[in-house]
Design brief:
globular; four-stranded antiparallel β-sheet; 4 strands; single chain; 77 residues; 2 helices
Length: 77
């Protein structure tokens, strides 16, 4: 599971990828939307790759901090 984030011109861009062997437990769209909610946006895509965007860069740090615990729980780690 990978999540990439960038901020350009006060706009947050997110992209998530999930290996095909994990898409039964973790969907890329769920990962990007977890962060997108914190940055004032939403996204979507396929189970293995998804994109999102938002207009509140101030929420990015909090959004990113939610990802690892969420993924660990989804994978039962």
């Amino acid at each position: 599971v990978i999540l990439l984030a960038s901020v350009a011109d006060e706009r947050v861009n997110l992209m998530a990828g999930v290996t095909k062997d994990l898409t039964d437990r973790v969907k890329a769209g769920e990962v990007v939307n977890l962060v997108a909610q914190e940055v004032g946006g939403e996204g979507g895509g396929r189970p293995d790759m998804a994109q999102a965007g938002g207009s509140n860069p101030a929420g990015l740090a909090r959004g990113l901090s939610l990802v690892a615990p969420w993924v660990r729980q989804a994978l039962g780690l």
